[in-house]
Amino acid sequence: MENKEYILSFFVIDSMGNEVDSDTISIDAVDKTDARTKAVKFLQKNYKGNRWEIESITLAE
Predict the structure, then answer these.
(1) Termini Cα distance of the chain
(2) What mean pLDDT do residues 2-24 have?
(3) Taking the CB of residue 16, how many other CB atoms lie within 10 A of it?
(4) Which neighbouring-strand residues pair with 23?
(5) H/E/C letters for each residue in 23-54?
(6) What is the mean pLDDT of the chain?
(7) Residue 1: pLDDT over 80
(8) Could you give phi then psi for residue 3, rounded to 5 degrees?
């Protein structure tokens, strides 16, 4: 299967409840489930210790 480009939009919240970061990045994945798995791994790795929320994962046009 060929990878497709997905757009991940997310934000990060610190322990005080303040938004400390937000971004939109692209992820190459086989399908939306694979994109979500890769997104979670990325967020866990890069924002360890903070709470994060995925706003959306959409297929790039």
Answers:
(1) 18
(2) 93
(3) 6
(4) 10
(5) EEEEEEECCHHHHHHHHHHHHHHHCCCCEEEE
(6) 93
(7) no
(8) -70, 150
